[in-house]
Amino acid sequence: MLIIPAIDLRNGQCVRLTQGRKLDVKVYDGDPVEIALKFEAEGARFLHVVDLDGAFDEGETTNRGVVRQIIGAVRTPVEFGGGLRSVHDVKGMIESGVERVVIGTLAVESPESLVQLVELYGSRVAVGIDARDGEVVTRGWEKRGRISALELARRVARVGVERIIYTDVGRDGMLQGINIEQTCFIARESGLKVTASGGVSSLEDIRRVAEASACGIDSLIVGKALYERRFSLKEALEKSRIQESAIQKPE
C-alpha cells in the first residue's frame, strides 16, 4: 500500500478544504516546497499536488510555478492535477517534469481528449473521479457531471486508462474515515487500479484500507490528518508496512 501525502495549493499556499468547498479553506503554515522536502525526508515515494485555483477555473495563478519549484527541489515523483482542461495543459505539465497527471473534468467533458492523452502518455495519465452520493462532480466539485462514478470508471477503463483516484467528496477534509465500501465497489466493478482519497483521520483508517487492498486499492492519499498532526508520515508508512506483512504472512 503506497501512502501518498497531498499538497493542495491555493494562491501559492498550502491549504486544505472541507468537503471540496472553496470558501471552507484552512491555510497551513509552511512553504509548499519545504513541505514537499519534509515529506520526502520522511520517506514519501510519491507526492500528490493539486492546483485548487485551477480546479475552480479561477484563471492564471502562481500554483503551477510552485509545482515546478517542487519538482526541481525533490527527487520524489510528483502526481499533479487541478485545472488541466486541455491536451496542451497536460503536455505542458508533463514537459515540466510531472510524473503522472490527474484528469477530472476533461475526462467527463471531452472524452476524445482523454483518448488522445492515453495514446500519448499511457499510464502517466490517471483519472480523478470525485463523487458526491455516487454521482461525479466536476469543475472544482461545483458542477454535477450527470454520470455515476461507476459509469465513468467503466468508460475510462474502456479507453485504456489504468488508474483512477477515487474521492468521496462528502468525506474529504472531514477526518471521518475513507469510504472503503464504495471505493472497493468501484475498484472491483471497473477492474482498474485505484488510489483512495478523502477522509483519512487515523492510523486505523490506514490499517483498514490496507486490509481491503485485495479489491484493487493499491495506494492512499493522505492530507489533512498529516497537517493536523493526527499522525506523522513516518507513522503512516510504518502502519502500512505492518499491515502488509500481516496480510502476506502465511497461515
Helix/sheet category: alpha/beta
The CATH topology is given as TIM Barrel
- CATH homologous superfamily heading: Aldolase class I
CATH class bucket: Alpha Beta
Main sheet summary:
8 strands, parallel, barrel
Number of domains: 1
Distance between the termini: 21 Å
Q: What string, H for helix and E for strand, traces the elements in order?
A: EEEHEHHEHEHHEEEHEHEHEHH
User: What gross morphology would you assign?
Assistant: globular
Count of alpha/pi helices: 11
Widest sheet: strand ordering: 1-4-5-6-7-10-11-12
CATH architecture: Alpha-Beta Barrel
Radius of gyration: 17 Å
| Percent of residues in helices | 25-40%
**Residues in β-strands, percent:** 25-35%
Low-confidence stretches: none
Q: What is the residue-averaged pLDDT? A: 89
Please report the total strand number as a whole number: 12
